[in-house]
Amino acid sequence: MSDRAIERKRLRAARAALPPAVRRATERAIARHLEHSGLIAPGSRVAGYAALGAEIGCAAALRLAERRHCRLYLPRITHFRKRQMRFVAVTGRWQRNRYGIAEPQGAAYAAVRSLHVILVPLVGVDARGNRLGMGAGFYDRALGCLRVSGWRRPILVGIAHSCQQVAHLRAEAHDVPLDALVTERGIVFFRGEPA
């Protein structure tokens, strides 16, 4: 088993051990921190996700974005074998995919570069913003275009419990680091606060 796989297993177990009440309280605290951060600007395009299993949810943060008249997007897997996903406008029509994740069924996609903020789930994150995901690579592929410098890019904001923070993760060539992390304790910016 690789170091990343071992770390992923350990962090998933720590996250799963948290009681549901703690998870709900963390989700609310994250939304409060985002409310005062300036990251979710009125009228912006915000992508979130539907939580799976013990992942910390971002529903409270998306409700904040909705109150600010933001356009909301969630990921929808478009090709399972190739591990591809796109961000789809939130509509009233939903369907669960083969992993049991709720996905919007609308036809309006947003190019990654057209989004202002992407709330990103994670298993672990280090002090430089390196993210450890579930291991399937959907986010790495979807966000891969952001590795090219010189382009405006969305702000990538990791959503996590503080127990998911580690000192160091070995970054891989396909990884796209986060710009910020929000936990129940507050917000950490990895590359300076956005203008």
Provide the helix percentage: 10-25%
Main pleated sheet: 8 strands, mixed
Task: Give the CATH superfamily.
Answer: NagB/RpiA/CoA transferase-like
Q: Which strands sit side by side, in order, in the main sheet?
A: 6-3-2-1-7-10-11-12
H/E series: HHEHEEEEEEEEHEEE
How many distinct folded domains? 1
How would you sum up the global shape?
A: globular
What brief labels describe this structure?
195 residues; alpha/beta; Rossmann fold; eight-stranded mixed beta sheet; two-stranded antiparallel sheet; 4 helices; 12 strands; 23% helix; globular
Describe the protein.
- The chain has 195 residues and is of the alpha/beta class.
- It has one domain: Rossmann fold (3-Layer(aba) Sandwich), CATH 3.40.50.
- Helices cover 23% and strands 25% of the residues.
- Strand 2 (71-79) and strand 3 form a beta hairpin.
- The longest helix has 16 residues, at 20-35.
- The model has no long low-confidence stretch (mean pLDDT 91).
Secondary-structure topology with pairs:
Elements: H1 3-16, H2 20-35, E1 45-47, H3 59-67, E2 71-79, E3 84-89, E4 94-96, E5 102-104, E6 109-110, E7 117-121, E8 124-125, E9 131-132, H4 138-142, E10 155-159, E11 180-183, E12 186-189
Parallel strand pairs: 1-2, 1-7, 7-10, 10-11
Antiparallel strand pairs: 2-3, 3-6, 4-5, 8-9, 11-12
Helix pairs in contact: 2-3
